[in-house]
Each structure stands twice: as structure tokens, then as C-alpha cells.
Specification:
Keywords: DNA-binding, Repressor, Transcription, Transcription regulation. By secondary structure, the chain is mostly helical. The chain has two domains: 50 residues, Arc Repressor Mutant, subunit A, CATH 1.10.10; 126 residues, Tetracycline Repressor, domain 2 (Orthogonal Bundle). It has nine helices and no strands. Helix 1 crosses helix 2. The N and C termini lie far apart (72 Å).
């Protein structure tokens, strides 16, 4: 009797294949044919599990988001304020092969947003979730007197989120501003005016 294929398991296998191709050869190499070959299935079988190529990218983006959140949660244990904020930034920003590959997936997902309005809700969910976390850490830093009471938490939260996104794009562009030491300098510059003396 043939083995029944678990739909979620097969979707995960296809997303894994997509991430391996992107890691090895970049997004342009992750064609439907290459994806099917990497996953060990026929090209037609891909579309039994996904509604199209964009849906694969969307699932890969969700995987990256979930992995990043798991790292953020683990790194945040026992930390608060600026230490927690630093740990969060480290786990979002590209600084090693895994997070650089993740940046490619994230930027590829953003590229689909104009043609796939339904993906915008997923992007807004990430922004809202990370925005809450950043705001919490900034308020903790004010409570702990790391930052001055007049720190503009909403504006600074927006600025930090914008920089996190920009640095992922800069990584994909190959810009020197994506180097970890320049990332750190930029984030420090944003926080510096509000540090308590």
C-alpha cells in the first residue's frame, strides 16, 4: 500500500528545498523546475501543495520569520532594556551565512508585495509584532534609566524598524553599510541622543 503523503510535511520539504537553493545559488536559481528537482518531486506536483510560486516564497518568508522569532526569544531570556534590544537586532540583521540567506528570502518576499496585496497582511503582522517588542525594550530602558524619560518611543521604534528593513535590503544589494560593524554604528547613532548620562 503506498504511503500517504502528509500535506504539511510535503510543504515543509518544498520550503526547505527553496531555502537550500537560495542559500546555494540565489533567488534567481530557485525556478519551479529547480525547486521540484531539489525537493525530489515533479514540477506539476509542486502545485498540489502551493497555489503558485509566490505562495512558496510566502511560506519561506513565514519560516524565516518564525526562526527569527525563536532566536529573539532565546536571546532575550534574562535580558531587558537596551541589552534585549541589542539581542533582538542581532537576531534580525544579517551578520552570518544563515541570516544573510534569510535577508535574501525576506527581500524576495517584499518584491512580491505589489503584485500580491494579500501578502501585505503578513508583512504588517511582522512589523506590528517587532514594533511591540522594540517599544517594550525602549520603555524598559527608560524605566532602568538607560534612556532619558523624554525618549520618543513611538518615533524611535519606527526608525529602528525602518533601519532593520533597510539593512536587510542593503545586504542583498551587497552594500558595505550591511557590514556588522556599520550596522552597529548606525543603531548606536539612533539611540545615542536618548542615552542617560
Amino acid at each position: 500500500m503506498p504511503r500517504l503523503v502528509d500535506r504539511d510535511e510535503r510543504r515543509a520539504l518544498i520550503v526547505d528545498a527553496y531555502l537550500r537553493i537560495v542559500s546555494r545559488s540565489g533567488v534567481a536559481a530557485a525556478t519551479s523546475r529547480a525547486l521540484a528537482a531539489e525537493a525530489g518531486i515533479s514540477t506539476g506536483a509542486l502545485w498540489h501543495y502551493f497555489d503558485g510560486y509566490g505562495d512558496v516564497v510566502r511560506a519561506a518568508f513565514q519560516r524565516v520569520y518564525t526562526q527569527t522569532n525563536e532566536r529573539i526569544a532565546a536571546a532575550g531570556v534574562g535580558r531587558r532594556g537596551l541589552a534585549a534590544l541589542d539581542a533582538m537586532a542581532f537576531d534580525i540583521l544579517p551578520h552570518d551565512p544563515a541570516t544573510r540567506d534569510e535577508a535574501v528570502v525576506v527581500v524576495s518576499f517584499w518584491g512580491l508585495l505589489p503584485a500580491h496585496g494579500e501578502f501585505r497582511e503578513q508583512a504588517r503582522t511582522v512589523e506590528a509584532d517587532w514594533g511591540r517588542q522594540v517599544s517594550t525594550h525602549l520603555r524598559e530602558a527608560i524605566d532602568d534609566r538607560e534612556l532619558v524619560p523624554s525618549t520618543p518611543v513611538p518615533v524611535l521604534t519606527d526608525a529602528l524598524l525602518a533601519v532593520y528593513e533597510a539593512l536587510q535590503l542593503r545586504e542583498v544589494q551587497g552594500s558595505p553599510t550591511a557590514r556588522p560593524e556599520r550596522q552597529r554604528a548606525l543603531l548606536d547613532h539612533l539611540i545615542a541622543p536618548w542615552r542617560a548620562s
